[in-house]
Amino acid sequence: MRTFLLLSIASLSVASFVVWKLQPPQTEDGKIVLTWVSDDNPARKAQAALFEKLHPNIKVNIDPDNNGVEKVIVQCIAGVGPDVYDAYNGFQLSAYVKSGVAMDVTNELRQHGIDLKSQVFSGVLPMCVLDGRTYGVPTNVGADGIWYHADLLRQAGVTLPKGPWKWDQFIPIAQKLTKRDSEGRITQYGFMFEWWNWRHFFCGYGANVFNASGTRCIIDSPNAVAAIQTMYDLVYKYHVSPTPVEETSMAAEGGFGSGYITLLAAKRGAMAVGGRWWLEQLRQTKGLQLGVIESPYGTLRESHTDGRGMLVNQHSNHLKEALELQRFLASDAYCDLINDQADACAAFIKADEKPSYFFNPKYPNERDNAVWLQILKMGVGDDISPFVDSSTVTRLIQVQLDLVQNGQKSPSAAMKSAAENVNAAIEKAVAEDPSIAEKYRLALKGTPN
Amino acid sequence: MKNRHGQFRAAMAFLAPNFAGFLLFTAGPVIFSLGASFTNSNLQQTVPLRFNGVSNLKELLADQSFWLYFVNTLYMMLGMPFAIFGALWLAVMLNRKIRGLGAYRTLLYLPSFASGVALMILWKSLYNPDFGPINEALRHSLALLHLHADSPQWLQSTHSLAALDVEKVGIAPKQFGIGARDALILMGVWTAIGGNNMLLYLAALTNVPEELLEAAQLDGASPSRCFWSVTWPQLAPTTFFILVMSIIGGLQGGFEQARIMTSGGPAGTTTTLAYYIYSLAFEQFRIGYASAVAWVLFAFVFVATLINWRFGNRAANEI
């Protein structure tokens, strides 16, 4: 028995040693390895490669598998988090900051002459700046316009207006572009949009989720209801956009670029809401005659800006190198690469004003870059409340949007419930967190409600 | 005596790695979550940790979402009897001496060792409302019968056969129909029917004494009489075990399906308590409250098992 036990211990030790030797090295050829949690966009590899070329002592590993707020926070707190990671909206930035995993880089950036407020599009600031402190540097910036198939429009005898336009001008055009087969099934949708993109419609109506101080959810305001009503009507009243069932029927399981981008490329829709970043995928389908126009609006000519902000894990073992990678995002080389890849647009305005942005000889048919710039200039970022966590708000709104999308509830009733539920969540959060209670009280005093 | 001491030490040495793992990865987190359930523990550092007694429990009692998701959990367990009886039926079929028995057994057990995620993605395609084979088959069958009815919208629908309300606990007639919850039940029954339960029943069937069956046959008992009067009572302990394990699994279940197939939607209809705990802890960062919900779920499981043990075990022994 004793021999067996000793043999077991010896074999376990040998196995442990082998595993220890087999583990991936912390450094490769003496290089420092940085982990960047981001999405599975193939463009990310070239971006990392460019940084590696400029910093031969650093290797960047992209980790899309852990791209999730909860994963990043738990891993960072546990000491095994990535060195840098992306925040996709103000909600996420707020969660990272409140969890204490995002490093405050305000002074760091200032020392290197990077001033986000004057150098980047304002719509991307909510992903990087919170309560006056800077935590992130934007990786890119995007705003949605309307993609259209010029050939399909020609065939239908449709001409789009040159200047700004409204939803009531848009709907007859979308109806004209909606085609059905002999059984009445839609073979070509006039217009495709995704329900998670409700903020796009909100901006066109000047609607907000919260009041200016963030103390109250106002998603039941007439403007917000009108925005959701427009989404609902496009599906159920005008029948120009897919219902959830039709959407599922067309959907494919897939990674980056699946969904409406592939459906637009396959001409399942004549027009679709989307950003410049769709080009990454659309460039792969030859022979498309695509154009871009700014989105119609309801009452306010604004567009919703999205993008990503790269944050640094303040528990990173390679802070110096992580900060270097973050600052690299402000460089000309990186911004030019973003514009060349069409990974949306470079967030630093100077890069989007270069002639090489407006005309890229590699893609001579892409003549709408000026339109994207115009849309970006009208961009506004997410409005968030410092008094409630983002995922709670998203979940509460999503439940109500599901009911609207399924035709179970009217937009006004759903938004009323959403506002009530979010306001209850704010009250609960304020009661639980003394650090925000005082701030909330002061904000209430200064806010006309 | 010395030899026994040596053996004891060796046994302890062998057990030590497993015990250390248990302490570190099971007992430790369990004790931590018990402690956390009486605090406002939050992953967001702006919330100072404080002991708040039973206020999580009080909040839970008034939490509409908790009760909605509890009802979802119970509703999704309705497939359990079908899964158990289906497994029994399959085991009886596979206990016969037929050609290609090994192949049948392998085929029926296949879903149990296939990747769960892959199966769920497959079912998602099967449930495709327009082009999925289930609705295609339904449409053709209805056309053959000259019936006109809309095909179910499966994972996109908030309906349920029990007409469960979506926003509060109760019944809403307008919610009557086949919806996402029913789709997940159907998938669950399919997965469970040829799984471990079938194997357990197969093993139990081989232990039914042949002489009892022969005696019954000699007395002129029909095959069904033989089954219900001889085989079924012999299977009672196995059925009891399967029932207990299914109830425990059912109360804790629904996470993977929600995560992979529906994200808990539409409108939270496929969110179960297990998924709610995950959402509270890792999406809303409310570790304290999530722990309280987890312990209440444990209490439900414990009480259900006690009731089973008290009445089910007695019934199993009396048969």
Quick recap:
The complex is a heterodimer of chains A (449) and B (319). Chain A is an alpha+beta fold. In chain A, 46% of the residues lie in helices and 13% in strands.
Structure description:
The complex is a heterodimer of chains A (449) and B (319). Chain A has a domain at 27-141 and 307-372: D-Maltodextrin-Binding Protein, domain 2 (3-Layer(aba) Sandwich), CATH 3.40.190.10. In chain A, 46% of the residues lie in helices and 13% in strands. Chain A contains 21 helices and 14 strands. In chain A, strands 1, 2, 3, 4, 7, 13 and 14 form a 7-stranded mixed beta sheet that branches. Chain A has a 3-stranded antiparallel beta sheet with strand order 11-8-12. In chain A, helix 9 crosses helix 10. Chain B has one domain (47-318): MetI-like (MetI-like fold, Orthogonal Bundle). In chain B, 69% of the residues lie in helices and 0% in strands. Chain B has helices at 2-36, 55-61, 64-76, 80-94, 101-113, 116-126, 133-144, 180-193, 196-206, 210-218, 223-252, 255-262, 273-283, 287-318. In chain B, helix 4 (80-94) crosses helix 9, helix 9 (196-206) packs antiparallel against helix 11 (223-252) and helix 10 (210-218) packs across helix 11 (223-252). Chain B is globular and about 75 Å long.
Major beta sheet summary of chain B:
none
Helix proportion of residues of chain A, in percent?
Answer: 40-55%
Shape of chain A: globular
The radius of gyration computed from the alpha-carbon positions of chain B, rounded to a whole number of angstroms, is 24 Å
CATH superfamily of chain B: MetI-like
User: What percent strand of chain B?
Assistant: under 5%
What is the tally of beta strands of chain A?
14
Largest interface, Cβ cutoff 8 Å? A-B, 38 and 36 residues
In this structure, how is the largest beta sheet of chain A organized? Answer: 7 strands, mixed
Helical proportion of chain B, percent range: 55-70%
Quantity of strands of chain B, as a count:
0
Task: Calculate the terminal CA-CA distance of chain B, rounded to whole Å.
Answer: 46 Å
Gyration radius of chain A (Cα, Å) is 24 Å
The CATH C-level name of chain B is Mainly Alpha
CATH topology of the domain at 27-141 and 307-372 in chain A: D-Maltodextrin-Binding Protein, domain 2
Mean pLDDT of chain A: 90
Query: Low-confidence parts of chain A, pLDDT < 50 over ≥5 residues?
Result: none
